[in-house]
Automatic annotation (TrEMBL):
InterPro entries: Isochorismatase-like_dom, Isochorismatase-like_sf, Isochorismatase_domain. SUPFAM superfamilies: Isochorismatase-like hydrolases. Residues 9-153 form the Isochorismatase-like domain. This is Isochorismatase family protein.
Amino acid sequence: MPLLNLPNSLLLVVDLQARLMPAIHDGARVVANAARLLEAGRLLAVPVVVTEQNPGKLGPTVPELAGLPPAIAKMSFDACAEPAVLAALGGDRDIVLCGCEAHVCVGQTALTLLECGRRVVVVQDAVGSRAPESRAVAIRRLAAHGAEIVTTEMVLFEWLRTAAHPQFRAVSKLIR
């Protein structure tokens, strides 16, 4: 099914960390869209998995994303190399992916998930890189390997499916 299915979705937030984000091109927009996804996920009971790359050096997840589940620390760029991440992702949910950097940790994680047969949905306006061209090339590469490329607004409205959803007003306010 091409549309996202709310009960089968999981949001994976990769490395949106305090010391990294100032270097990310348009980082404030990436964080704002990740926050929208997280708030919609909270309202709609979407499970969330969070990673932090080398948190001793890059610090914790940005404070704008407070209230997340505890982050899983990792040293590998590919989050799938961390057994705790794989365990948290489970075996069959669609992975809605946001975070940094598109061409490193997000990219390697997405490619491994695709290789494992998972459906990967990359939220283009909620992923970032230091250089815009690195992000653009990563998005093209991920799409070429089977990742679906969407926007934050697409995810929110596919999770809702209808204006009759009990959380419609609360979720739609996130994009105004």
